[in-house]
Input
Amino acid sequence: MNGRLGILETWVDPVTMEKAVAAVEGYVEKGERAHAIFAVNPEKNYSVPKDPSLYRAFRDADLLIPDGIGVVLAARLLHRARLSRVPGVELMEEICRLAAAKGYGIFLYGAREEVSVDAARVLAERYPGLTVVGRANGFVTEEGMPRLVDEINASGARILFLALGSPRQEKWFATHRDELTSVRVCQGIGGSLDAVTGRVRRAPPVFCRLNLEWLYRLLREPSRLGRQKVLPLFALRVLGQKLRLMLQATARPDRSGASGRGAGPSLAAEDVFVPEEH
Ligand code: UDP
Output
């Protein structure tokens, strides 16, 4: 997507929910291959650069959505970009709404068997007209993978939701993308099916309004502390980067405003982690 922004070691696309859904429709209507949509959050800033295959999967993704508030704030601070969150689970539901209206078949791959069964039913009820053309739980063995891919292709699914958690889902896509014949959009949705079926409760609106969804999730699932400890580190690194840019801009006043996003410190080419063309 044009205008992709570098956020430390990852990227994010400056899309709104509306634009993301329009992009999905375009991928299905005009695309001839499977397009990847992945969510970006501070945790990925640490995991992606450490793993070359994950790095390539993110670099080559068609749409990197600003899933969490950390990335939204970082984009504002580093690029003066006014992004709003596009939570993966909400985009998934919007894609289901679109699929129901347009007749795109969806395939659910991932989560525990009972969650997958329930999710297929809940989504079909919630979006009348939606066709869940197939589903599989997320515990298929390597030996079973060719059969699963055949099943996905035979289903004629246009949309494939990968609910395997990160980085498993992104790596699965990188490995199997070229084997997918009917799928045009593949979204990595992590634990969204657990949320859709009510097994994991989403934060109450007040937490969402205050951008504290992460805190709510941490309080309900303290085992996530290990993963969320990267948040303060991420904030510190973003502030460090910002400071560095401001110092550079002071030292080189001729380079301020170079990004075209208004006056003030901006990112110089070497400061941005820019994906290669794809
Ligand atoms: N999961 C799976 N296969 C596995 C491991 C996990 O399908 O081998 C599922 C798990 O049941 C859960 C999801 O992947 O539904 C991971 O959820 P989590 O909230 O950890 O993912 P995140 O959204 O944080 O990436």
In short: The pocket of uridine-5'-diphosphate is lined by residues 110-112, 138-139, 163-166, 190-191, 193-194 (CB under 6 Å). The domain at 11-197 is CATH 3.40.50 (Rossmann fold). The radius of gyration is 19 Å. Confidence is low (pLDDT under 50) at residues 256-278.
